[in-house]
Amino acid sequence: MPTFAMKLNFQIVIFKKERIIMKKYVCDLCGWEYDPEVGVPEQGIEPGTAFEDLPEDFECPLCGVGKDQFSPED
Ligand SMILES: [Zn+2]
């Protein structure tokens, strides 16, 4: 069943891609951007950390507001 196998493989590729892509978030106040691929090494946030996985006490490195002041980047 080559057709079935190809379709299954295609779905796995899409699944992996969606897991790798993490949204960037932008600070509403100062415009600082959180890039999950970079993290915030100064705050001990390792590269590859999704915004959702940041500690609840995370603060914007520039203006110091909390996570609730960030919006997902389009
Ligand atoms: Zn800020």
Average pLDDT rating: 87
Computed structural class = alpha+beta
Largest sheet: 3 strands, antiparallel
| H and E string | HEEE
Named once each, the bound ligands are: zinc ion
Strand content: 5-15%
Dominant shape: elongated
Q: How many H/I helical runs?
A: 1
The gyration radius over C-alpha positions equals: 17 Å
Poorly predicted parts: none
- According to DSSP, the number of beta strands is 3
Helical proportion, percent range: 25-40%
Strand order of the largest sheet: 2-1-3
Q: In angstroms, what separates the terminal alpha carbons? A: 40 Å
Oligomer: single chain
Overview of the molecule:
It is built from 1 helix and 3 strands. With 74 residues, the chain is an alpha+beta fold. A 3-stranded antiparallel beta sheet has the order 2-1-3, with no helix packed on it. A hairpin with a 5-residue loop joins strand 1 and strand 2 (33-34). The site of zinc ion has 8 residues, from loops.
Describe this structure in a few short sentences.
By secondary structure, the chain is α+β, with helices and mostly antiparallel strands. Helix content is 26%, strand content 11%.
What tags apply to this protein structure?
74 residues, alpha+beta, 3-stranded antiparallel beta sheet, 1 helix, 3 strands, elongated, binds zinc ion
